[in-house]
Amino acid sequence: MEPIIEFKNYSFKYNSQVEPTLRDIDLSVYPGEKILIIGPSGSGKSTLANCINGLVPFSYAGESTGELYIGGKEPKDLGIFGLSKMVGTVLQDTDGQFIGLTVAEDIAFVLENDCMEEEKMHRRVDAIADMVDVKNLLHHAPGALSGGQKQRVSMAGVMIDDVDILLFDEPLANLDPATGKRAIALIDSIQKEQNKTILIIEHRLEDALYKDVDRIVVVGDGRIVADMTPDQLLSCDILMKEGIREPLYVTALKHAGCTISEKDRPAHVETMDFSAYKGQVQEWFASAQTPAKGKNSQVALAVEHLDFSYDAKHPILQDIDFSVNKGEMISIVGKNGAGKTTLSSLICGFLQPDKGRILLDGQDIAPLSIKERGEKIGIVMQNPNQMISKAMIYDEVALGLAVRGVSEDEIKERVYETLKICGLYPFRNWPISALSFGQKKRVTIASILVMNPQIMILDEPTAGQDYRHYTEIMEFLKRVNEEFGTTIIMITHDMHLMLEYTDRAIVIADGQMIADDTPANILTNGQIADRAYLKQTSLYEMAEKCGIPSPSAFVECFINYERTVR
Amino acid sequence: MAKLFSYEEKGTWMEDLCGVTKLIFFLAWTITCMLTYDTRVLAIMLATSLILFKLSKTSWEQVGSVFKVILVFMIINILAIFIFAPGQGTKIYGTEHILYSLGGRWVVTQEQLFYELNVVLKYFTIVPAVFMFIITTNPSELAASLNKLGVSYNIGYAMAIALRYIPDVQDDFHKIKNAQEARGIEMSGKAKLMDRIKNVSAIIFPLIFTSMDRIDTVSNAMELRGYGKNKKRTWYMGRKLAKADYAVMIVTLVVMVIALVVTYHDGSRFYNPFI
């Protein structure tokens, strides 16, 4: 069989860069294959994808050497439009890629550009909408849909063209765990029913492996460092070396000192054979110690019976009631659109509650303005571009102090100190535009931290970050929490984050608080995980298969171990 | 939640009309209104305009704040007319009925008041038509109709996509404003005017950067899905002109002709009640 995509000794360098982004790529993909491409940020995996869909070199110019064939032809002969007939791309930012005002128009966009007659177009749109189950949404605005629905609409928009290759650029990045699982299942069924060639770019390996893939291609520093089956990959140590997070059960097995063998099929926790490891895992669990935690019982923030709605018929939040102790690091979790961000907006005073109180150090903060609350409660938004308003790092971090009339000497001192903590001191005179996304994120955290808030709220602090940057940001937050005693509240749907870095999680589902417990207990409780669109951790399944009586204690043990080795 | 000044589906017969029909109505209506100073014509047009506005089910939240801004401009406009040309009414109508004098050349006359009344009427006649046009026209459908009339689809699409992004940019604006306020940048009336102007940059820059991000993503998405491949394109929202469209166009043109005939039959575009 002829490969549908073939790279031969291919290298590519962007015109704007000195070093090539891709080097000596050799890769063949055959029709009907399903391939997962993983690699840390900046490894070149997105460039690899852009070479296939034609954004490289048609939108991002550069020089290439070696050969590349898509469907047996060279991209330069096909052009970006020729390639778009063969390769359909679902971009990472589902919000940004919607073009049409309604779902139907967005799905029809390709057909419009192909000059298809209206009637035929309407029929095609109906058919494809049926396939991905968005038929009842055709006349909605894409922006008003939930994360999962958005993804299905963008899939419909590329599949309608009857392309042979479907390329998914980080399909899980903006989805809560359960919706992500469904997206992977949908991709899987499309591949099986229509025999498409599927390429998935992801760094969330464990979630992406929810359904089988034929091969995993690991990209590191512009080269392909591995091209093997999931079972092979998980039984060697390439992932660790490349800074990609292994599935949790694999990490746990390694902690227990096991050597994973390919023949036990480690690709899925459900089908893996644990019999060879059972003894070692039990021993490790028995020997592990759970340190007692010193608890500070002084309440920093108390939320009492909070209700909120935009109109009386549709309550957004109902009877939210919890408190956060001084120096705690907690997470607020739940599915996309459950009301997590609304809750933080209420705490910061962007919105006013219909009922209930918010107390800071025992004082009702209802009379305080946004600005006044901002002095005690700092908020870091998900997208750093939404906060950065100065060209230079120093000015950006100094902004909050400058508008409060702090003297220049003091500003300088405090800014420098904060920059040092955030690891940004060497860059203090750099323009912000020269920073990476993760560094920008740190700048926004620094610009809040410099004001010395008692409480910091972070909205999805690690969204879109690979494992290395994720660890960097989280370790940094942990240090802030420990050294300054800053209370940290994180809004997230990243289960690793809540499991590894927070002592307690508040779970919100459909506007109601359904749990306030340790992450280990929440993620081993199927009922809560289901309602909140979380996913039971694979450690739970592993614990059961290894005959450990208390899965949640096992999860605790794993987390503690992780914390000590990190 | 009603978004300010954007298309909203309400299921009125006006929405069922083609974008082109509404564009023609809008242009004819505005031109007629600009040309005529005939108070009788203006009065009838105003009444029609208000009835149509009612039928379009436009809600006050959608247009209220824009209307207030227009109102301010109108007041400035009529005051300016009086300050700079207090004798305009007399010049037009040929008579002078003095009500009282404010000193110098500023004399309030019946003629001047009547003239300025006509100006106000014009405002009130045109403004609802503008609102209706924007609120009841689906931007994609308008782009489609314009393209069918021979306008390049790039222009139509640029317009449609701008409208598509209005709500997103509004959202961004609110998020950024809140975040900056929380950092201590005062945006409300409490700050001094100069400070406020300076502080606006704290919203504008992030807004520009996030919008640039959006542009980058959406232009990639459009290209990947074949936009600009052909000289022509078809439209999912395209609509053929129906009987109702022709009817509305004919009625519009007939009304325009009648209005202009009534206005100009005596050689002047002013209706003169003073002789």
From TrEMBL, chain A:
Please state the span of the N-terminal signal peptide per the UniProt entry: none
Keyword list (alphabetical) reads: ATP-binding, Cell membrane, Membrane, Nucleotide-binding, Repeat, Translocase, Transport
State the superkingdom.
Bacteria
**Which SMART domains does the record cross-reference, listed alphabetically?**
AAA
Write out the GO MF terms: ATP binding
The ABC transporter domain extends over 5-246, 301-535
Q: Keyword check for Cytoplasm, yes or no.
A: no
| InterPro entries xref list | AAA+_ATPase (IPR003593), ABC_Co_transporter (IPR022216), ABC_transporter-like_ATP-bd (IPR003439), ABC_transporter-like_CS (IPR017871), ABC_transpr_CbiO/EcfA_su (IPR015856), ECF_ABC_transporter_ATP-bd (IPR050095), P-loop_NTPase (IPR027417)
Compartments where located: Cell membrane
Where is this protein chiefly located? membrane
Q: How does it sit in the membrane?
A: Peripheral membrane protein
Instruction: Report if keyword Kinase is assigned.
Output: no
Per the entry, what this protein does is: Probably part of an ABC transporter complex. Responsible for energy coupling to the transport system.
Report the sequence similarity comment from the record.
Belongs to the ABC transporter superfamily.
Stated name of the protein: ABC transporter ATP-binding protein
Automatic annotation (TrEMBL), chain B:
InterPro entries listed in its UniProt record: ABC/ECF_trnsptr_transmembrane (IPR003339)
Q: Which Pfam families match?
A: CbiQ
Look up and give the membrane topology term.
Answer: Multi-pass membrane protein
What are the transmembrane regions? 23-53, 65-85, 120-138, 246-265
Q: Which CDD domains match?
A: EcfT
Protein name per Swiss-Prot or TrEMBL = Energy-coupling factor transporter transmembrane protein EcfT
Compartments it resides in: Membrane
Q: Which PANTHER family match?
A: ABC TRANSPORTER PERMEASE (PTHR33514:SF1), PROTEIN ABCI12, CHLOROPLASTIC (PTHR33514)
